[in-house]
C-alpha cells in the first residue's frame, strides 16, 4: 500500500512542520510580527539538544539522554526567545511592522553566522544518534513506522495537545487571545502584557527547539544552517493556514507534507522538493487569499 505508507510518512513530516510553525504563528497572532529569527531559535534548540545528549550518553550511557536533552533544549530555546523579545521586539511594539521584520531578518543572519564559528557549531554537520528512545517499531499490512517516526509523532502530539489546552483552558491562553485581538484594550482590562507576551515567546520558542531536536534526530544531522529551509517553510505554512490561526497551521502543515510526499512519489523530482512549498502557497492563495482558515478583514 504505497499510498498509505506515503500518507503516514507525510503525517510524521507534518508533525515537525507544525511544531516549528505553531510557535511562529503564536508570535504573529499576538504581536503581528513575522519572527524570521524563530528559525535560528530552532537551530539553537537542536544544538543544545545535541550537546546535552552527547554529554549524558558519554558520561552515563543510561539510554535516557533524549528524554533529558529534549526538555533542556526546549528550556534553552524558550529563554532565548524571551531574551529576543525583551532585548529587541519590546522596543518596537509601536513601530511600523516592517521595522521588527527587518530586525528579525538581521538577527537571523547574525545568529546563523555566529553559530558557524568554530567555538560553537562550526561549519560541519554533527550526528545526533538518538535511535528510537525506547519507542517500538510499528509494522502493519498497510504501513510501517520506524521507532524514530513513532517518537516524533508521540512527542509532537503531546506538545501540540499541551499548547491547545494552554490556549483554551487557562488564563494565560485567555490573555494571549485578548492581546491578539487588541493589546491596548487587553492592558486596560488588567492583562499584564509583558508577562503574557514573554510567555508567548517562551512557549513558541520552546516548540521550535523541540522541532529542531526532532528533525536533528530524524536526519541524524545537526548543523548551523539547518534553519534556512524551515525559515521560509514555516512562513509558507502560517500564510496558508491563515495568519495567526493555530488550527490553520496544523491543516497547512499536513497539506504541505502531503503535497511534498505524494508529488515526489507519483511524479518524481519534477521540482526541487522544497520548491513545492511555494507552488502549494500560490495555488491555495489563488482561491483562498486569506489562507485556509483565515478570516477576511
Summarize the structure.
It contains eleven helices and two strands, in the order ααααββααααααα. With 297 residues, the protein is mainly alpha-helical.
Strand content: under 5%
What general form does the structure show? globular
Mean pLDDT: 85
Sequence of strands across the biggest β-sheet: 1-2
The major beta sheet can be summarized as: 2 strands, antiparallel
Please count the beta strands (DSSP E, at least 2 residues each). 2
Category from helices, strands and their pairing: mainly alpha
Q: What string gives the helices and strands in order?
A: HHHHEEHHHHHHH
* Tally of separate helices: 11
Helix content: over 70%
Rounded to the nearest angstrom, the distance between the terminal CA atoms is: 44 Å
Count of the separate structural domains: 1
Describe the structure.
It is a single chain. The protein is mostly helical. It has helices spanning 2-31, 38-59, 65-87, 98-115, 147-169, 171-181, 183-188, 193-219, 228-241, 246-267, 276-287; strands at 138-139, 144-145. It has one domain (13-227). It has a two-stranded antiparallel sheet with strand order 1-2. The mean pLDDT is 85.
Which key terms come to mind for this protein?
297 residues; mainly alpha; two-stranded antiparallel sheet; 11 helices; 2 strands; globular
Amino acid at each position: 500500500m504505497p499510498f498509505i505508507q506515503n500518507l503516514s510518512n507525510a503525517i510524521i513530516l507534518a508533525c515537525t512542520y507544525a511544531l516549528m510553525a505553531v510557535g511562529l504563528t503564536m508570535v504573529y497572532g499576538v504581536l503581528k510580527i513575522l519572527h524570521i529569527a524563530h528559525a535560528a531559535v530552532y537551530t539553537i534548540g537542536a544544538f543544545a539538544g545535541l550537546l546535552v545528549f552527547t554529554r549524558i550518553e558519554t558520561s552515563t550511557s543510561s539510554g535516557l539522554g533524549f528524554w533529558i536533552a529534549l526538555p533542556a533544549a526546549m528550556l534553552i530555546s524558550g529563554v532565548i526567545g524571551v531574551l529576543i523579545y525583551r532585548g529587541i521586539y519590546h522596543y518596537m511594539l509601536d513601530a511600523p511592522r516592517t521595522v521588527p521584520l527587518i530586525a528579525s531578518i538581521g538577527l537571523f543572519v547574525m545568529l546563523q553566522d555566529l553559530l558557524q564559528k568554530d567555538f560553537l557549531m562550526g561549519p560541519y554537520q554533527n550526528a545526533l544518534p538518538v535511535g528510537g528512545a525506547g519507542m517500538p517499531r510499528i509494522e502493519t499490512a498497510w504501513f510501517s513506522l520506524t521507532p524514530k517516526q513513532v517518537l516524533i509523532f508521540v512527542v509532537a502530539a503531546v506538545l501540540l495537545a499541551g499548547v491547545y489546552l494552554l490556549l483554551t483552558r487557562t488564563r494565560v491562553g485567555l490573555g494571549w487571545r485578548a492581546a491578539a485581538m487588541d493589546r491596548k484594550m487587553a492592558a486596560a482590562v488588567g492583562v499584564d502584557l509583558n508577562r503574557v507576551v514573554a510567555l508567548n515567546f517562551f512557549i513558541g520558542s520552546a516548540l521550535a527547539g523541540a522541532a529542531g531536536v526532532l528533525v536533528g534526530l530524524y536526519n541524524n544531522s545537526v548543523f548551523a544552517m539547518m534553519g534556512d529551509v524551515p525559515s521560509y517553510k514555516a512562513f509558507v505554512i502560517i500564510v496558508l493556514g491563515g495568519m495567526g490561526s493555530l488550527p490553520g497551521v496544523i491543516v497547512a502543515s499536513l497539506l504541505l507534507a502531503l503535497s511534498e510526499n505524494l508529488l515526489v512519489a507519483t511524479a518524481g523530482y519534477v521540482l526541487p522538493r522544497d520548491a513545492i512549498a511555494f507552488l502549494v502557497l500560490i495555488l491555495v492563495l489563488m482561491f483562498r487569499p486569506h489562507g485556509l482558515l483565515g478570516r477576511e478583514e
